[in-house]
C-alpha cells in the first residue's frame, strides 16, 4: 500500500474530477461544471485551460471575462504551486499512457527496442506549430485534435469515433515510443513544463540517504529531471517533472520526498 | 565523414524543422477537415467568430433542459467539441431565459445580442438558422392538407404563414401552403422536427448558407429605412475601364455604325 499511495491518490483525483464533470452533465451537480477546457467551480469560480486560451487569442478571438479570469487562475496555480502536476494528477490520458508503459514493461518491448525515434523537445515544437496553425486557421488548432480533449470530453459528453484516437495513442506508447505522447509530443504537457518550472511544490532528493539503486531513474517517465541522483542533494528543478511521485514510492531509502521550495530563505541544500 | 559542430547543428535543426513541417501539415489538414462544417446549427446568440471563441466546455450543453445541444464528437460532421443541434432529432424549444446562452463563459454565445429593449432575454431574437421549404416534396404543395410545420411554429403567423391558392387541377380545392418569413424565423427547427414527410421537406439551414444578399445596387425606394444600407457605402468609385478619348461627334460620324 505504501508503494502505491501516491498512485492511488492520483487516480482518485483523476477520477474525481471526471466524475464531477459527468455529474454536472448528467445529474445537474453544481460542484464542477464544464470540462477541462473551461469549467465553473461551485457555480461561481471560473477555471480555464490557459494553453487553449492562448491558442484562441492567436486565432483572433475576443474572449469574455469569465474564461480570461479562469485561465489566469489556472495559470497562477500551476506557475506558483502545482508545477506540471496537471499531467499526472488531472489529465485522464495519463491513465492510458501509464497502462501502455506498464504493459510495455511486462511484454518486454523496452528490452527489445531501446532506440528513441523522438526527441523530448518535440513537444516545444508542437507548441509552436499549435500557435502557428491557430493563426493560419483562425481556430484553436490543438483543441481540434487534442487527445487530452478527446479523452476527457469523450467520457463526459460522448466519444463518437474518439475511441480510435485512444487506441492509437495506446498502441503508439506501447509499441513505438515509451511514454511517447506524454513525455515527448504533448504540447499541453510542454506548456505546463514551461509555466510550472518555478513552482514551489517539488520533489527533494537527499544524497546522504541514497544507496544508488536507480529504482527512481528506471521508473521515471521524464528521466532527465533526475540528473542530480547520486551526485548532490537538491530539488528536482526541471519543469518536466510531473510530480507523479513514482520515484518517491519506489525509493527504499526515503531519499526522495515531496517538499516546498523556499524562495524567501536562501535555497537550502 | 567527419561532421563539424556547425554542420551537425544545421542538420539537426533541418531535421526538426522538416518533422515539424510534415507533422504540422498533417495536423492542419485534419483540423481543417474538422473545422469545415457550414451546415451546423449553433445555440442562440452565437457570434460571428464562434469557432475561434468557443472553448468547448459544454456548459451550454449541460444547461439545455431538452438535451437539444450536444458537443460534436470525432467523426461527426461538425467542428470537434463545439455545441450544435440537429433539429430533426431534437429541436430548440426556445426557453424564455435562454439558459444555454447564459451559461457561456467564453463569449462565443453572447447574451447581449439576445436582449430586448427592457434588457430582458428574448429568445425571439435568436438567429440560429432559417427554415427552407422544399416545394416539390412538401405535400401541402401537392394539394394534400398538412399544416404540421405551421401549427408547431413558436412564431405562428409571423415566421410561418399559410398562403391560400386555388387548386386548378381539381377546380374546387385550395392549396394551403407554408411560407417562411426569414426576418422572423429563429431557426429553432420545430417545423423540421414536426414535418411528416419521411425526410423533412422543411429544414433549417444556417442563415449565412440559406440567405442571399442583394448588395447595394438595389434599394427598396418605398421603404425609407432601407436606404440606411447605403450609409456605409463608399462613394469613391474608381472606374477601371478607360474613357474614350474620341468626341461624341467623331463616334457618331464614324462609318462603323453603318452595316453595309
Protein architecture, described:
The complex is a heterodimer of chains A (269) and B (260). With 269 residues, chain A is mainly alpha-helical. Chain A is built from 14 helices and six strands. Chain A has helices at 5-27, 50-58, 65-82, 85-89, 93-107, 109-112, 122-137, 141-145, 147-157, 162-176, 180-185, 187-195, 215-219, 246-250; strands spanning 32-34, 38-41, 45-48, 201-205, 234-235, 256-260. In chain A, the strands form two sheets. Chain A has a three-stranded antiparallel β-sheet with strand order 1-2-3. In chain A, β1 and β2 (38-41) form a beta hairpin. The radius of gyration of chain A is 19 Å and the shape is globular. By secondary structure, chain B is of the alpha+beta class. Among the domains of chain B are: 37-126, Alpha-Beta Plaits; 129-210, Alpha-Beta Plaits, CATH 3.30.70. In chain B, 25% of the residues lie in helices and 11% in strands. Chain B contains eight helices and six strands. A two-stranded antiparallel ribbon of chain B has the order 1-2. In chain B, strands 3-6 form a two-stranded antiparallel ribbon. The termini of chain B are far apart. At the A-B interface, β2, α2, α3, α7 and α8 of A face α1, α2, α3 and β1 of B.
Number of strands of chain B: 6
Strand arrangement, largest sheet of chain B? 1-2
Which radius of gyration of chain A do the C-alpha atoms yield?
A: 19 Å
Terminal Cα separation of chain B, in Å?
A: 85 Å
Largest interface pair: A-B, 56 and 36 residues
Shape of chain A: globular
If you average the pLDDT of chain B, what whole number results? 88
The CATH topology assignment of the domain at 37-126 in chain B is Alpha-Beta Plaits
Shape of chain B: extended
Amino acid at each position: 500500500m505504501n508503494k502505491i499511495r501516491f498512485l492511488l491518490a492520483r487516480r482518485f483525483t483523476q477520477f474525481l474530477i471526471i466524475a464531477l464533470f459527468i455529474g454536472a452533465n448528467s445529474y445537474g451537480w453544481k460542484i464542477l461544471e464544464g470540462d477541462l477546457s473551461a469549467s465553473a467551480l461551485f457555480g461561481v469560480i471560473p477555471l480555464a485551460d490557459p494553453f487553449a486560451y492562448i491558442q484562441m487569442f492567436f486565432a483572433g478571438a475576443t474572449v469574455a471575462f469569465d474564461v480570461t479570469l479562469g485561465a489566469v487562475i489556472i495559470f497562477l496555480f500551476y506557475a506558483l504551486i502545482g508545477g506540471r502536476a496537471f499531467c499526472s494528477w488531472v489529465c485522464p490520458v495519463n491513465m492510458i499512457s501509464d497502462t501502455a508503459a506498464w504493459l510495455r514493461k511486462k511484454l518486454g518491448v523496452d528490452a527489445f527496442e531501446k532506440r528513441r525515434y523522438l526527441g523530448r523537445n518535440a513537444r516545444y515544437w508542437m507548441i509552436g506549430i499549435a500557435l502557428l496553425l491557430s493563426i493560419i486557421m483562425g481556430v484553436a488548432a490543438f483543441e481540434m485534435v487534442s487527445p487530452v480533449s478527446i479523452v476527457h470530453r469523450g467520457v463526459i459528453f460522448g466519444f463518437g469515433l474518439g475511441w480510435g484516437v485512444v487506441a492509437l495513442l495506446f498502441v503508439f506508447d506501447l509499441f513505438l515510443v515509451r511514454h511517447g505522447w506524454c513525455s515527448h509530443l504533448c504540447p499541453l504537457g510542454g506548456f505546463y513544463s514551461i509555466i510550472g518550472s518555478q513552482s514551489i511544490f517539488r520533489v527533494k532528493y537527499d544524497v546522504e540517504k541514497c544507496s544508488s539503486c536507480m529504482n527512481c531513474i528506471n521508473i521515471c517517465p521524464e528521466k532527465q529531471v533526475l540528473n542530480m541522483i547520486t551526485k548532490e542533494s537538491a530539488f528536482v528543478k526541471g519543469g518536466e517533472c510531473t510530480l507523479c511521485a513514482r520515484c518517491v514510492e519506489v525509493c527504499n531509502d526515503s531519499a526522495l520526498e515531496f517538499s516546498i521550495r523556499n524562495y524567501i530563505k536562501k535555497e537550502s541544500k | 565523414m567527419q561532421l563539424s559542430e556547425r554542420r551537425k547543428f544545421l542538420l539537426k535543426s533541418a531535421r526538426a524543422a522538416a518533422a515539424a513541417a510534415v507533422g504540422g501539415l498533417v495536423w492542419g489538414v485534419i483540423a481543417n477537415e474538422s473545422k469545415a462544417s457550414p451546415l451546423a446549427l449553433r445555440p442562440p446568440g452565437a457570434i460571428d467568430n464562434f469557432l475561434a471563441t468557443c472553448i468547448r466546455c459544454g456548459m451550454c450543453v449541460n444547461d439545455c433542459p431538452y438535451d437539444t445541444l450536444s458537443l460534436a464528437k470525432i467523426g461527426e460532421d461538425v467542428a470537434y467539441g463545439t455545441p450544435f443541434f440537429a433539429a430533426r432529432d431534437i429541436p430548440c424549444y426556445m426557453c424564455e431565459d435562454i439558459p444555454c446562452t447564459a451559461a457561456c463563459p467564453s463569449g462565443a454565445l453572447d447574451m447581449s445580442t439576445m436582449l430586448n429593449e427592457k434588457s430582458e432575454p428574448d429568445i425571439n431574437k435568436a438567429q440560429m438558422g432559417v427554415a427552407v421549404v422544399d416545394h416539390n416534396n412538401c405535400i401541402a404543395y401537392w394539394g394534400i392538407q398538412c399544416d404540421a410545420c405551421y401549427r408547431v411554429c413558436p412564431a405562428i403567423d409571423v415566421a410561418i404563414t399559410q398562403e391560400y391558392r386555388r387548386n386548378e387541377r381539381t377546380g374546387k380545392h385550395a392549396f394551403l401552403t407554408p411560407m417562411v418569413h426569414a426576418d422572423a424565423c429563429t431557426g429553432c427547427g420545430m417545423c423540421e422536427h414536426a414535418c411528416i414527410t419521411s425526410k423533412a421537406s422543411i429544414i433549417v439551414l444556417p442563415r449565412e448558407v440559406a440567405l442571399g444578399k442583394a448588395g447595394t445596387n438595389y434599394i427598396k425606394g418605398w421603404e425609407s429605412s432601407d436606404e440606411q444600407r447605403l450609409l456605409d457605402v463608399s462613394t469613391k468609385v474608381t472606374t477601371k475601364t478607360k474613357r474614350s478619348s474620341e468626341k461624341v461627334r467623331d463616334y457618331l460620324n464614324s462609318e462603323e455604325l453603318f452595316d453595309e
